[in-house]
Design goal:
The protein has two domains: about 15-195 and about 325-350, Jelly Rolls (Sandwich); about 200-310, Homeodomain-like (Arc Repressor Mutant, subunit A, Orthogonal Bundle). The chain contains twelve helices and eleven strands. The chain has helices at about 10-20, 130-135, 150-165, 170-195, 200-205, 210-220, 230-235, 240-250, 255-270, 275-285, 290-300, 305-325, and strands at about 20-30, 35-40, 45-55, 55-60, 65-70, 75, 80-85, 95, 115-125, 140-145, 345-350. Strand 4 and strand 5 (about 65-70) form a beta hairpin. The radius of gyration is 22 Å and the shape is globular.
């Protein structure tokens, strides 16, 4: 971990890197008639965009129903079941985990009386080390309207994602993966720069123009023994005022945040490299391997060596799981509106199904 190389790395970049965001599956869908798709949600993120028409998404929680129009993009946090509901009494169709178990092998939903909506949906998986850090910083949903001033890039990327998801061309999977991740980054940027409500956490601190410079210093050089005075000066605040404002935004003190970030960095590198533990200890601010090992065990419940061994087992299992679940279906939670069409029915093609 070369601090010179990371001098210009911002916290959002580092958290996304630790989370290992990757699009594991995507789907283009064209729906018609009255229908409802019931989806249990994922442990990661879901990204949905309406290419044409209108849709609504309801989550089995107390969050309000989301209305989506043409060009709108939404990112949904993990673990919340989705129930698209357009005001219809149609019984929900449970989205199966793989194509072979589809309720309708033809891939059609609805009564086919009207063309309603076309959309694209992606499942984005996150790794354990950064997953909770990213999810805890996001609200249940982040929606960007097509008419928003900042949405021009999204509107350019969206047709590219649709084209690659629906393509049999060389490296279409890779292209769709990168485009989905780029859409995610753009949505998070817009969310970061906007005035919306953010949960208490690092992203809220990053959105604070006074706290962001101090947060950037800790991320740029986590090994440095940062003093409160140095961080407060970066924020142009008194030490007391800085600590109070940081804790109000991030939910923890600056020292606690730095300690947690060091442990996360260590966990990330333990699972991916054979870096000697003594060297890794220095890279996250510990001059003694034993002091680092004790701190790491208090934070994770495992010694660095135990954590490294367990991480490698999980990594092998994840690779096997991703290989054997390549045909997983990805739902797009949309419901049909009542518009006349000459093309009835619902069709959806996934880049993982062909």
């Amino acid at each position: 971990m070369d601090t010179d190389a990371n001098a210009h790395v911002d916290p959002l970049t580092e958290v996304l890197s630790l989370a290992g965001a990757r699009c594991v599956s995507s789907r283009v869908l064209a729906a018609s008639g009255s229908w409802v798709l019931d989806h249990p949600g994922t442990d990661g993120l879901e990204l949905y965009a309406v290419v044409e028409g209108e849709a609504r998404v309801a989550m089995r929680a107390r969050e309000p129903t989301l209305s989506l129009g043409t060009g709108d993009v939404v990112v949904l946090g993990g673990g919340r079941p989705r129930v698209p509901d357009g005001g219809t009494t149609v019984k929900p169709v449970r989205e199966p985990p793989v194509p072979e178990k589809a309720a309708d092998p033809s891939g059609r939903l609805g009564d086919g009386r009207s063309e309603a909506v076309s959309a694209v949906g992606c499942v984005i998986e996150l790794d354990g080390v950064g997953r909770d850090l990213l999810l805890s910083a996001l609200p249940p949903s982040v929606r960007v309207r097509a008419a928003a001033d900042e949405a021009a890039t999204l509107q350019w990327l969206l047709p590219c994602l649709v084209r690659e998801t629906d393509s049999d061309g060389p490296a279409a999977d890779i292209a769709a993966d990168h485009l989905a991740r780029l859409l995610l980054v753009m949505v998070l940027r817009i969310h970061l720069d906007g005035a919306g409500i953010r949960p208490v956490g690092w992203l809220r601190a990053l959105a604070d123009e006074r706290l962001a410079p101090a947060l950037g210093l800790m991320h740029a050089d986590p090994a440095r023994p940062w003093r409160l005075g140095e961080l407060a000066r970066a924020a142009a605040m008194s030490r007391t005022g800085f600590v109070e404002r940081f804790k109000s935004a991030a939910g923890v003190t600056p020292q606690a945040y730095l300690h947690d970030w060091r442990m996360r960095l260590a966990g990330y590198h333990l699972g991916r490299a054979d870096t000697p533990i003594a060297r890794l200890a220095l890279a996250v601010g510990y001059t003694s391997e034993s002091a680092f090992s004790n701190a790491f065990k208090r934070a994770t419940g495992m010694s660095p060596r135990q954590y490294r061994n367990a991480a490698r087992v999980r990594w092998d299992q994840d690779r096997f799981r991703l290989t054997t679940s390549a045909d997983r279906r990805v739902p797009v939670p949309v419901t049909a509106a009542d518009r006349h069409s000459r093309n009835p029915g619902t069709t959806h093609r996934s880049r993982r199904e062909r």
